[in-house]
Amino acid sequence: MSHTVTIEPDGSRFAAREDETLLQAARRAGLVLPHECGWGSCSTCKVTLVAGETELLFPAAPAISPRDARTGRILACQSMARSDLTIRLSPAAPPPLAVPDREQRAELVTVEELAPEIRRFTFRTEAEAAFLPGQYAILHLAPGLRRAYSMCNLPDGETLQFISKRYPGGAGSTALAALDPGAELVLEAPFGTCTLARRPGRKLFVAGGTGISPILALVREAGRDRVDFAAPVDVIYSARRAEDLAAGDELALAVAALPGATYRAYVEEGAGVSGLSAGRATDAVAASDFDPQAAEFYVAGPPVMVAAVKAQLKEAGVPITRVHYDSFG
Ligand code: FES
What we know:
The chain is an alpha/beta fold. The protein folds into 3 domains: 2-98, Roll (Ubiquitin-like (UB roll)), CATH 3.10.20.30; 103-191, Elongation Factor Tu (Ef-tu), domain 3; 203-326, Rossmann fold (3-Layer(aba) Sandwich). Helix content is 19%, strand content 38%. It contains 7 helices and 21 strands. It has helices at residues 22-28, 66-71, 171-177, 212-224, 248-256, 281-286, 303-316, and strands spanning 2-8, 13-17, 31-32, 46-51, 54-56, 73-75, 79-81, 85-88, 97-98, 103-115, 118-129, 136-142, 145-150, 157-165, 184-191, 203-208, 233-241, 261-269, 277-278, 296-300, 323-326. The strands form 5 sheets. Strands 13-12-15-10-11-14 form a 6-stranded antiparallel sheet. The protein has a 6-stranded parallel sheet with strand order 19-18-17-16-20-21, with helices on both faces. Strands 2-1-8-4-6 form a 5-stranded mixed sheet. Helix 4 runs parallel beside helix 5 (248-256). The chain is globular, with a radius of gyration of 20 Å. The model has no long low-confidence stretch (mean pLDDT 90). Residues 35-38, 40-45, 63, 75, 77 line the site of FE2/S2 (inorganic) cluster.
């Protein structure tokens, strides 16, 4: 069953099935509504529900606030139509963009164990898989279950690699972990704007947990292209325990290929082993020298960690335009 969704103020319309989100339905119709994370953490996709009924897929989404119920605001990435709808975009939002469909089938070809409950999944797409390092894909893991994962590999035209941790009770990570090689699914890619700006200057790349995925891709890109930032580059990787630093050796290798770059790993438990420092991502940033007005930051990890580092950088006087981030957890 499908319903008609009308967008105010420009009056464009699209059909939404009952088993897809408004964001997904709009995309199927060739319209891109404002969005960033695709899973409920960033608020970018919030729209006002002017008329009609929706069902919320993920009631505990971090971007939902108690005020939203009073003001009729809903997340387009987590809401499904249950009647014809009229929605209104924020006055500050850009109008919907018309873009080609980016949805295609992909086959899981390998699964690698990287750390306890952390695996790397390599998918081969049926058509060309074009993306920029730092971008992400949305995987359709089951009806109504879509999750965003950043690619950790460099684009090769046909494969997408994701690093994922299985969280007990986490529907998305559990569904992904249950896939065996040969499994097929639909994915949408690419999304995201956390891509490499090649301008010279001090850079800090900060990864927490499986946030290593986009950071690994960005550092690999900079190393492959011998990007000369003409200033020191710090690459920081933090996790709770040493064994949770999945693919840390690969990140260290990528850093070694980048002139002027240094790698530092931080753990909350078990520091002092193999040169690991004690602390969290915020401790690593606090221990770094940088000019707040000149340095540029790439931050990826769990939403709590990314929020803490962003708050720390804001407090230090770093303009938000110099902080590129992904907070998929
Ligand atoms: S795109 Fe919907 S909350 Fe981020």
